[in-house]
Specification:
It is built from 7 helices and no strands. Helix 6 runs antiparallel to helix 7.
């Protein structure tokens, strides 16, 4: 019974914290809380976004220095290890092709809770200016239903 009371108290405290976070300034963080995205899933998502952003910048013609390329390779290896721990074949998400909405959607379905809408997730990232250029590109490559 004490455990149930503690869980209820924690839920209420989270509810209060969410009321204090301005949704128009931090839509992505509210999205993470509202959809029950675990810390490991959040970390994997951020790493995926970094890798996709790196590919997007490379495809856009942005010059890349050696340190950036070394960090990219290290992040790619970490992503593959983390994705493997989730039972996800991460190789399909670290190609050298331009990232697309379809690829992002596949990643979301493989790594995040089932109720996560990839389009809404991208919009929340874009509004919070997290990888804004990449998110804008992915939304533009979305095929209309």
């Amino acid at each position: 019974m004490e455990l149930e009371k503690e869980i209820e108290r924690l839920k209420y405290q989270i509810h209060l914290l969410k009321m204090m976070v301005p949704g128009d300034e931090f839509p992505f963080y509210l999205f993470v809380m509202d959809h029950g995205i675990a810390q490991e899933q959040h970390h994997l998502l951020r790493r995926y976004l970094y890798l996709a952003n790196h590919r997007w910048n490379h495809m856009s013609g942005e010059p890349q220095d050696e340190a950036s390329l070394l960090y990219y390779e290290s992040a790619k290896a970490s992503f593959l290890d983390e994705a493997g721990a989730f039972g996800i074949g991460g190789e399909r998400f670290v190609t050298e092709t331009c990232p697309s909405y379809e690829e992002f959607e596949q990643f979301v379905k493989a790594a995040l809770p089932a109720d996560v809408d990839p389009e809404y997730l991208l919009q929340s990232l874009l509004k919070q200016n997290i990888y804004g250029s990449l998110c804008g590109h992915l939304l533009k490559t979305q095929v209309a239903p």
